[in-house]
Design brief:
eight-stranded parallel β-sheet; globular; TIM Barrel; alpha/beta; binds calcium ion; binds alpha-D-glucopyranose; 2 domains; alpha-amylase activity
Length: about 600
């Protein structure tokens, strides 16, 4: 099939109003009782997603993979990991989504492959292999005593160095993540063409509707590979993100990818943009005129509670609500007056659950705080992304689960590093601190099996799943919440409907923060065009992030407005109950459409 020649234009932007729902294939639904979620399982739940109000399904990597990093280590872009299903199953999933007016996007993992990918096997086979230069190979360095050293001192994302020695060809190769994830050399035009063909057009031609673009700002490296400055005196390896994020040719590569591949299809792209705090820089990626990406995930809010830099990511540091508010404000307002676009999200497969991080997972607060976060998410401007289980208020794994229940390579590597540093006396309390951090921030929390009902294994499947089911699955599950008008699930459905009904206000409106210094409540206003583009509408959103009753500072303004949505059936207007969330809107005068 030849690519359809669809030119993107400003009137063809279905992805702006879309609600996207991320599915983590291993943990969503197991159809055949082997303990692993799969694509037929997902297909059996497409009606559930439709009913929730989902427009686009984002499926995390389901490609052939040795699963060192849960599929973010791809050994064949054109095959599906057998436990998840087949290429035909993905085609059926595309059809199942399209039949219901929904769309499907996949993950594009093109910064690195698995070390089991045929490209890397060839590349490592000899120094003069034609694919040698598809990855980064560099000779060793030696210190004054003749000890072999890697080409640079970079710290990788998974608590180790970024270079692995290859005995056969006596050189090191680069990997920003695990050693099983060698980085592709985007500076080589042949490599880029191979990625476009195998990782992109292969699936685009099967009718998928776009990509979430993994680690999107890491394709371009400083290929002279300078050492990073020494800032961590405990280690040889040093923080070096500035040397491999937003590299010199990144915008050129993304523009080429857009022009040569993406512009030929009616698709959306959302890039995973880490380590880029400057709004002007983010705009270079998402401005429509730049023709690179439609939007990106920016991670300032997700980083709340994480320690400084890569090395201390899991050393939990308490954060203040005022900081969260400034972050939301910054990333709501950065597109004002520009041709760029933004995203709204608070969960994904790389983080702890939002209720446990930003609300409270204590029994008396968890449902309310899940709803309060739903109010915040559904009234903010940008494309909204939900993560599986967020719609029922799933929470972090219990704190008493031992480290053996954690499976993620990143978390485990940090734990092992901390264990070593504690044992060696370099940092005696580090093991305990990192364990505490993992209890809040680990990537594992979001990877627990989806809780469908109260049968054994939470209705995820008929056999013990690859990760332990949450202890509270009998209380928090889809079946229990379906049809209950007061459940988190019903609340999400209603909030998602209102988001569509008031799209100009909630999805496209401008954002204004009130009372920025208040440490307990988050109050903001949205302003947008009225129905049919006439006049102007306003919404006032009030959220109590605390466990106590708080005064509602904007009560006077709210009196002239209509209460559109509230976490509590009955409340007093002058104050906000613990974790209460409310949305008021200006009355629509007579105009019904
Ligand atoms: C992205 C993914 C994460 C993965 C990493 C390496 O950050 O979201 O899960 O480990 O890329 O591919
Ligand atoms: Ca299965």
């Amino acid at each position: 099939m030849s690519p359809h020649a669809i030119v993107k234009n400003s009137t063809n932007q279905w992805w702006k109003n879309a609600t996207v729902y991320q599915v983590y294939p291993a943990s969503f639904k197991d159809s055949n009782g082997d303990g692993w979620g799969d694509i037929p399982g997902l297909i059996s739940k497409v009606d559930y997603l439709k009913d929730l109000g989902v427009d686009v399904v984002w499926l995390s990597p389901m490609f052939e993979s040795p699963q060192c990093d849960m599929g973010y280590d791809i050994s064949d872009y054109e095959e599906v990991y057998a436990p998840y299903g087949t290429v035909k199953d993905v085609e059926d999933l595309v059809a199942a989504c399209h039949e219901r007016g929904m769309k499907l996007i996949l993950d594009l993992v093109a910064n690195h492959t698995s070390d089991q990918h045929a490209w890397f096997k060839e590349s490592r086979s000899s120094k003069d292999n034609p694919k040698r230069d598809w990855y980064f190979w560099r000779p060793a360095r030696y210190d004054e005593n003749g000890n072999r050293l890697p080409p640079t001192n970079y710290r990788s994302y998974f608590a180790g160095g970024t270079w692995t020695w290859d005995e056969t060809t006596q050189e090191y190769y680069l990997h920003l993540y695990a050693k099983e994830q060698p980085d592709l050399n985007w500076d080589n035009p042949e490599t880029r063409q191979a990625i476009y063909k195998s990782a992109m057009r292969f699936w685009l031609d099967k009718g998928i509707d776009g990509f979430r673009v993994d680690t999107v700002n890491k394709y371009s490296k400083h290929v002279d590979f300078p050492d990073a400055p020494i800032t961590d005196l405990k280690n040889y390896i040093q923080p070096a993100r500035h040397l491999f994020c937003n590299g010199p040719r990144i915008h050129e590569f993304l523009r080429e990818m857009h022009d040569e591949v993406l512009s030929h299809y009616d698709v959306m792209t959302v890039g995973e943009l880490s380590n880029t705090p400057d709004p002007q820089h983010v705009l270079r990626y998402v401005s429509a005129a730049a023709k690179q990406l439609d939007m990106v995930f920016q991670f300032d809010m997700i980083h709340l509670g994480m320690g400084h830099g890569l090395e201390d990511k899991y050393d939990f540091t308490p954060w203040a609500l005022t900081r969260l508010k400034q972050i939301v404000k910054k990333w709501q307002q950065f597109i004002d007056g520009t041709d760029g676009w933004t995203t709204v999200f608070c969960e994904n497969h790389d983080n702890g659950r939002a209720v446990s991080r930003y609300g409270s997972d204590a029994p008396q607060h968890r449902e309310t705080s899940a709803k309060m976060l739903a109010v915040m998410q559904t009234t903010l401007t940008g494309t909204l992304f939900l993560y599986q289980g967020q719609e029922i208020g799933m929470i972090n794994a219990p704190k008493n689960w031992p480290i053996d229940e954690y499976k993620d390579i990143e978390g485990l590597n940090y734990y092992k590093e901390a264990d070593r540093q504690s044992n060696e006396g370099v940092d005696p309390t580090r093991r305990a601190r990192i364990m505490r951090g993992l209890q809040i921030l680990a990537r594992d929390h979001s990877r627990l099996p989806m809780q469908w009902d109260d049968s054994e294994y939470a209705g995820f499947g008929t056999a013990a799943p690859w990760m332990r089911v949450h202890d509270l699955y009998k209380e928090i599950n889809v079946a229990r919440q379906t049809g209950d008008p007061n459940s988190v699930l019903s609340f999400y459905k209603r909030a998602l409907q209102l988001r569509k009904e008031y799209a100009e206000l909630f999805i496209h409106g401008s954002f204004k923060l009130y009372d920025g210094e208040n440490e307990n409540t988050f109050v903001f206003e949205k302003v947008g065009k009225g129905p049919g583009g006439n006049g102007e509408e306003r919404a006032l959103v009030a959220l109590n992030f605390s466990k106590d009753v708080q005064p509602f500072s904007m009560v006077e303004r709210a009196r002239d407005m209509k209460l559109l949505l509230s976490t509590h059936a009955e409340s007093v207007s002058e104050s906000l109950l613990p974790f209460e969330g409310r949305v008021y809107v200006t009355e629509r005068s007579g105009l019904v459409n």
